[in-house]
Amino acid sequence: MLMRSEPFTEASRLAQQLFGASSAGTWSRPTGMPVDAIRNGDEFVIAFDLPGVDADAIDIDIERNVLTVRAERRPIDLGEQAVTQLTERPLGVFSRQLFLGDALDTDRIDAAYDNGVLVLRIPIAEKAKPRKVNVVGRQQSEQKVISS
């Protein structure tokens, strides 16, 4: 069902951790997000980890079976008196693209976001579901006519 995901995602994520963060702790370019993809009966479930992201900062697009999820983690606004002591959580834009197979019904995707996890449920297309094919034997299809 999932054709492929972005190649070199782990290598890219490591490179960004080493070289991509600015001194303020924000990412200079989009970064990946952890994902699980599971087939569950007649649906395909994809879960993205997005801790600390508001639901209104998530954007989901599908174009030609390419699923793109973008999310932005914004800094916490504690007012003018707040002084940062430690910054380890990356801020900025996170993105992920997955290439979906034709066997999925991308017109009926359901998205839910709870506790920092975005869950997409994509039904398996009817044309891709297993089905029985009725076999008709030659004798069954021929009708004999008896004349008197």
TrEMBL record:
Record-linked Gene3D superfamilies: 2.60.40.790
UniProt record similarity statement: Belongs to the small heat shock protein (HSP20) family.
InterPro entries, per database record: A-crystallin/Hsp20_dom, HSP20-like_chaperone, Small_HSP
Taxonomic lineage from the root: Bacteria, Bacillati, Actinomycetota, Actinomycetes, Micromonosporales
Protein name: HSP20 family protein
Domain SHSP: 26-139
SUPFAM superfamilies named in the record: HSP20-like chaperones (SSF49764)
PANTHER family attached to this UniProt entry: HEAT-SHOCK PROTEIN 20 FAMILY MEMBER
